[in-house]
Design brief:
single chain, about 70% helix, about 5% strand, rod-shaped
Length: about 260
């Protein structure tokens, strides 16, 4: 048996369609067109059989189930050694043992592919998506309507995850743009800071010069006041002596002569 990519969804045995992947026979094209016409869109009503002789009930229900399964999980194609193979999803019912085996396979693949237990992990997401598809297949075999409803739920979950992924990527891009803008403005800010530091140093130097000038002026003014004070005291003493001499002379003139 030709080996295919490992998946947790149960498929039927592969069927050889063509021995050449370049040229396909008319039989393949007719079969594909027939299968495409019979595929149901999610939520679409189940097609009614043509009028005339009705097919057996079991065969009709089986065909409807296969159509629903093909709509939910399309058949996969792969080539091997120039031969084209098609593998459709299995329409066989699942037992309790199959569910237990599915759980064991999930745990084994999570361990083999080293999926992270927490956080965002594409590997874990892929494996759980395969398990969910297999559960949808098992439910669809029992009841096609429940399978279609689960298909709507699966598509809604995928759409929500896609929206969250788009939002996350846009937020990352926004953060990167802001980081680049901040990095671009960092040089201007550094130049501005250097300019302000230089201006501050110049102002500090000017302040020191003005302080030294003020101290010089105060010292010079202090010396001037001291000189003027000394001159004032000397002049005052001179005037006092002159006054005393004039007073003495005046007293001697005004005094009566001695007999």
């Amino acid at each position: 048996m030709i080996s295919t990519s490992q998946t947790l969804v149960k498929y039927d045995n592969p069927v050889l369609i063509s021995k050449s992947t370049d040229k396909k026979s008319s039989r393949v094209r007719s079969k594909r067109s027939t299968a495409k016409a019979g595929v149901l869109a999610p939520g679409a009503p189940v097609p009614q059989p043509p009028r005339g002789k009705l097919p057996p009930v079991d065969k009709k229900a089986s065909q409807q189930t296969e159509d629903i399964l093909n709509a939910i999980i399309p058949p996969r194609e792969y080539s091997d050694k120039g031969q084209l193979w098609v593998q459709q999803v299995s329409a066989g019912p699942a037992t309790r043992l199959d569910v237990l085996n599915l759980q064991e396979q999930l745990d084994s693949k999570l361990q083999q592919r080293q999926a992270r237990e927490t956080g965002i992990c594409p590997v874990r997401r892929e494996l759980y998506a395969q398990v969910f598809d297999e559960l949808i297949r098992q439910v669809t075999v029992e009841c096609g309507e429940r399978g279609l409803l689960l298909l709507r739920i699966r598509d809604e979950i995928r759409m929500t995850l896609s929206a969250y992924q788009t939002l996350y990527e846009s937020s990352i891009a926004f953060g990167m743009r802001k980081a680049l803008q901040a990095e671009a403005g960092k040089g201007d800010m550094v130049n501005e800071i250097d300019g302000l530091k230089q201006e501050n140093a110049d102002l500090q130097s000017e302040v020191q010069k003005l302080k030294a000038k003020c101290e010089e002026i105060e010292q010079r003014e202090k010396e001037r006041r001291a000189t003027e004070q000394r001159k004032h005291e000397e002049e005052l003493q001179f005037l006092k002596r002159t006054n005393q001499q004039l007073k003495t002379q005046l007293e001697s003139i005004l005094a009566p002569p001695k007999k």
